[in-house]
Write a structure and sequence with these properties.
Blueprint: E1 6-10, E2 15-21, E3 27-34, H1 36-40, H2 47-73, E4 87-93, H3 97-114, E5 118-122, H4 123-129, E6 142-147, E7 152-159, E8 162-168, H5 174-184, H6 191-199, H7 224-239, H8 246-272, E9 276-280, H9 287-299, E10 303-305, H10 317-328
Parallel strand pairs: 1-4, 4-5, 6-9, 9-10
Antiparallel strand pairs: 1-2, 2-3, 6-7, 7-8
Helix pairs in contact: 2-3, 4-10, 5-6, 5-7, 6-8, 8-9
Bound molecules: 5'-O-[(R)-(carboxyoxy)(hydroxy)phosphoryl]adenosine and zinc ion.
Family: Belongs to the KAE1 / TsaD family.
Binding site for substrate: 146-150, 179, 192, 286
Subcellular location: Cytoplasm
């Protein structure tokens, strides 16, 4: 059944997510069960808790997705059956190994029982394919910036499936820097959404934070110095008995991170001669980053594509988009496939 829908599972970190898309790439179901509340009190994701919560959630999330797809298709005689699907896609890596294993083990059993093929998906490629959700006709070449909790990289997307990584972070990822700064300020986990809300009311020029690697003339990044600078600033203000203006701090931190992102993206576009740009990963949900990159790159004559805000952080819709392409190419996985926690693009 080549035109049947594909079900995709994502469990690489702290979201148990299941999506179903039809053969034309139309989303029929998009379910996410988040574990954030269970991790928040520890200030970050606890791998053992993540695995256990995936085990508890996965059957319910798959059922909810099948129900949602049945409603979308207007099916009367009960929910969509697993045997009516074309394939099961699942995130193979990178991510937390115990979390990935839950999704993969479930996907294998489900595909085997339904007699349908298994397709494995690289989570990082998923973040790129999130761009297709709003613009299904997108075609490479692009320069792609991936900014998530675990990764920060600039990629030359020569064709779908053909990726040249131009540079990565030498230490922390951008999302990780947001999370660590938020933790230092006692703002909880995850840090990105809180900091971007505060930054709206702040002055990005209030505090001069370092822009590491800004002039390094390569495509590598470094975030740990900025994180240290912010923490040092917090300590100094506190010791001097001065109140910290959180919106100004948040806006100044964002400006330091995002100035470097724009500079390197513009350089990568110039160096490759590519005229089209995509963004992805959890930090791509940030309104200031979206607005600033769109304005500046369009002024440079670049076509800018952004994923829908809801598909920037981890979800299964983006995994389904990759699975659909691999399925069409007959690129199936064997049933003895394993999680690959350190997978790269
Ligand atoms: O892509 P993602 O959901 O997970 C990984 O694959 O890592 O990204 C999560 C990261 C977290 O570090 C979170 O703080 C960050 O994305 N994030 C944001 C925003 N929303 C989420 N960072 C900045 N601004 C946001 N609005
Ligand atoms: Zn992710």
């Amino acid at each position: 059944a080549r035109r049947a829908p594909i079900l995709a599972i994502e469990s690489s970190c702290d979201e148990t997510a299941v999506a179903i898309i039809d053969a034309d790439g139309v989303l029929l179901a998009n379910q996410i069960s988040t574990q954030i509340d269970f991790h928040a009190r520890f200030g970050g994701v606890v791998p053992e808790i993540a695995s256990r919560k995936h085990v508890e959630a996965i059957v319910g999330v798959v059922d909810a997705a099948l129900d949602e797809a049945s409603r979308a298709l207007g099916l009367e005689g009960g929910p969509l059956a697993p045997t009516e699907l074309a394939a099961v896609g699942v995130t193979q890596g990178p991510g937390l190994v115990g979390a990935l294993v839950v999704g993969i083990a479930f996907a294998k059993g489900f595909a085997y029982a339904a007699g349908i093929p298994l397709v494995t998906v690289n989570h990082l490629e998923g973040h790129l394919f999130a761009n297709l959700l709003d613009s299904p006709d997108l075609e490479p070449p692009f320069i792609f910036t991936l900014v998530s909790g675990g990764h920060t990289m600039l990629v030359h997307v020569c064709a779908w499936g053909d990726y040249e990584v131009l540079g990565e972070t030498l230490d922390d990822a951008v999302g990780e820097a947001f999370d660590k700064v938020a933790k230092a300020l006692g703002l909880g986990y995850p840090g990105g959404p809180v900091i971007s809300r505060l930054a709206k009311e702040g002055d990005p020029h209030a505090i001069e934070f370092p822009r590491a690697m800004m002039h390094s003339h390569d495509f590598r990044f470094s975030l740990s110095g900025l994180k240290t600078a912010v923490i040092t600033y917090i300590d100094q203000q506190t010791k001097a008995g001065l109140v910290i203006h959180l919106p100004d701090l948040a806006a100044s931190f964002e400006a330091a991170v995002f100035d470097v992102q724009y500079k390197k993206a513009a350089e990568a576009l110039r160096a490759t001669g590519v005229r089209s740009y995509c963004l992805g990963g959890g930090v791509a949900a940030n309104p200031h980053l979206r607005q600033m990159l769109t304005e500046k790159l369009e002024r440079d004559g670049i076509r800018v594509h952004l994923p829908p805000v809801s598909a920037c952080t981890d979800n299964a819709a983006m995994i389904a988009m990759v699975a659909r392409r691999k399925f069409a190419q007959g690129d199936f996985a064997s049933f003895d496939v394993d999680a690959d926690p350190n997978m790269t693009l």
